[in-house]
Amino acid sequence: MGPGSVRARYLVYFQYLGTDFNGVAAVRGVQRAVGVQNYLEEAAERLNSVVPVKFTISSRTDAGVHALSNAAHLDIQRRSDRPPFSPEVLTEALNTHLKHPAIRVLQAFRVPSHFHARHAAISRTYLYRLATGCPRPDKLPVFERNRCWALQADCLDVAAMQEAAQHFLGTHDFSAFQSAGSPAASPVRTLRRASVSPDPTSPFVLPEESRRLQFWSLEFESQSFLYKQVRRMTAVLVAVGLGALMPAQVKAILDSRDPLGKHQSRVAPAHGLFLKSVLYEGLGPTSMQPPCMPSETQYRSQR
Fold first, then answer.
1. Which active-site residues does the annotation give?
2. Cβ-count burial of 74 within 10 angstroms (0-12 exposed, 13-18 middle, 19+ buried)?
3. pLDDT class for 296, splitting at 50, 70, 90?
């Protein structure tokens, strides 16, 4: 740290459509693939920090997965004659310099220097969207493509799916729903919520199509998840909804702790999955009011 310069740590919330990205994490080197983090850090370069700005992402998402609200912490060290950015100006500055239209910074908070976006999270919620009544991909509205898993079936046994989802609640060894490559030291997780419910009719569905197409939401909440756990649980619940599995079999799969079984090895497509929220004690969307965004003049005055 330079003499007299002050380092400020921020928590930022951001959202993205994951279709164009190789996941949220930065891709280093000369590969053509790119992560959301690459664009965030490129925007942060324009903030003239004394040291390069690195984002520490709260929740890693795979290629094609979306986020309504992800989070990260970052440190910005300005010259000694410059005060720290206000959270509002930081939000505006990052959005001004972001070069991809599918990424948006929602809000920023000043946090203590010891705060860690990944370790401090108390809750993460994932949303998975399904569509039924879609015999061919071209039967799905173009505005819904890459936003849900389109099933050929006309209907799902939602009551059976809801019954099966109850087996996930509580603290369990979720080894059966963990994909290879998971960095987790333990497969034990506590699932606080697992729900299956109908979605309101999509505004992108034409009236003549609304009788055929139906949308469904699956939501899962836990402090943390294993690698691809949500997509594997979703695939099993869809199998229940289609009648390929009975609800009681889901408990047997969970108890087996075997990730290579016939049903639990299936993984739902990435494009139907959304990271819905990451929560922290006293911070985040539940405490946010719509911000009054600073003007370009205000941003310039803090540069």
1. 62
2. buried
3. very low
